[in-house]
Amino acid sequence: MSYLIFSDVSLDIDKNFADSHDVRYVPMEYVLGDETFHCDKPESDSMMHNYYEKLRQKVKTQTSQITPTHYMDLFEPLIKEGNDIVYLSLSSGLSNTYESACLAARNLKEDYPDAVVEIVDSLSATGGMGLLTESAFANKEAGMSASENAEWLRKYALKVRHWFKVEDLMYLKRGGRVSAATAVVGTALNIKPILCINREGKLDTIDKKRGNKLALKALVDKFEATYDPSVSDVVYISCADCVEEAQTLKEMILVNHPELKVRMTMLSPIIGAHTGPDMLALIHYGTER
Q1: Torsions phi, psi of 168, nearest 5?
Q2: Are residues 19 and 135 in the same domain?
Q3: pLDDT over 70 at 80, yes or no
Q4: Greatest CA separation found in the chain?
Q5: How many domains does the chain have?
Q6: Which domain holds residue 200?
Q7: What span, in angstroms and rounded, lies between the C-alpha atoms of 275 and 271?
Q8: pLDDT level of residue 175 (50, 70, 90 thresholds)
Q9: Which of 7, 10, 183, 275 has a Cα at 20 to 30 A from 201?
Q10: Which band of pLDDT confidence, cut at 50, 70 and 90, is reported for residue 178?
Q11: How high is the pLDDT of residue 173?
Q12: Based on C-alpha coordinates, what's the Rg of the chain?
C-alpha cells in the first residue's frame, strides 16, 4: 500500500525540496493582533518578514492546539483512498499535537484496522522537523515501508541537534523559560541565552553570551562538538527575520565544512510566536542528545 508523509506546518523546510516532493502538511492557526490566520502550508518569506515586523511593534500573537478531530478529518479521506500515513509531529515536549495525533490514530484504527497510521514524535522543531522530513522521503525512495520508515525516524530523532539564540527575553519569560527579573536584566545587559532541545524534546538553556558575536560563536562551537556527517551533510539555519545574521552563521560553519548543504529558512509563525523576532537556530544530525 502506498503511503503519504505528513508534518506539522510549523516545520521549516527547504522550499526547493518541498516543491519537488509530495510533502503533506497538517494545518495550524495563529493569531496576530485581531486577525486569525489559517496556515495550510509554510508561509512565504515576505509574509514572515511582515509578521516579525508586527512583533517588533509589540503586536500580540498566539497559537492554538490541533484537536484529534482535526487529524481524523484530514487523514480519514486519504485512508479511504488506500493510503497509509506517516506523520511527524512537533515535539511532545513543546506541544500537545503528538498526543492528539495518537488519539486520532487509535480512533481511525478502530474503523480501518488494516490501515497503517504511524505517528512519530519528532522530539524536534523548526528545521529539525525539516531534516527528518527530508530523511523520511529518502527512506521511502530507498524502499522502506511506512512502518520501517517510522521506526527509523524514531531512532534518529535524538540525533537531531538544535542550537539557537533568542533576541527578546520577554518571549522566553511568557513561556516560563526565564524569570521576569532575568528577562529585564538580561535585556538591559544585552544577554543572549543559548538554548537546545533536550532528550525529552523540551527547551533547555545551556549558556548565556553577551552580544551577538559571542552568541554566534557559541552556536558554531556546539555544532563543531556534536556534528556527525555519517547521517547527513544537510544543515538547517532557521531565522526569525534576521537574514544577515543567518548568512554570517552560514559562512562561519562553511569555513571548516565547505561540503555542507546549508538550508536557509524563515522561522514559521507557529514557533516564532513563542521565540519572538531575530531568533536564530543551527540544526543538524549529530551525536545523540
Answers
A1: -105, 105
A2: yes
A3: yes
A4: 59
A5: 2
A6: 159-285
A7: 7
A8: low
A9: 183
A10: low
A11: 74
A12: 19
Q: Which among 135, 157, 179 is the end of a domain?
A: 157
User: Cα–Cα distance between 143 and 262 in angstroms, integer?
Assistant: 26
112 and 177 housed in the same domain? no
What is the C-alpha separation between 25 and 41, in angstroms, rounded?
A: 6
- C-alpha 47/C-alpha 255 separation (Å) is 32
CB 115 within 8 A of CB 109: yes
- Over the stretch 17-35, which tens digit does the pLDDT of each residue have? 999 999 999 999 999 999 9
Q: Grid coordinates 525512495 are at which residue? A: 141
Provide the whole-model pTM.
0.94
Please give the residue that has the higher pLDDT: either 277 or 170. 277
39 close to 121: Cβ distance less than 8 angstroms: no
Q: What is the CATH classification number for the domain harbouring 274?
A: 3.30.1180.10
Provide the strand spans (E) within the chain: 3-8, 24-26, 28-32, 35-39, 61-63, 84-89, 117-121, 160-165, 191-197, 203-210, 234-239, 261-266, 280-285
Tell which of 94, 128, 157 closes a domain. Answer: 157
Dist. CA 116–CA 75, nearest whole Å: 11
Q: Of 167, 239, 5, 198, whose CA–CA distance to 94 is shortest?
A: 198
For residues 66-91, average pLDDT: 97
Residue 8 carries which side chain, given as an amino acid letter?
A: D
Burial of 145 (0-12, 13-18, 19+ CB in 10 A): middle
pLDDT at 177: 60
Is 169 exposed, middle or buried (CB count within 10 Å of its CB: 0-12, 13-18, 19+)?
buried
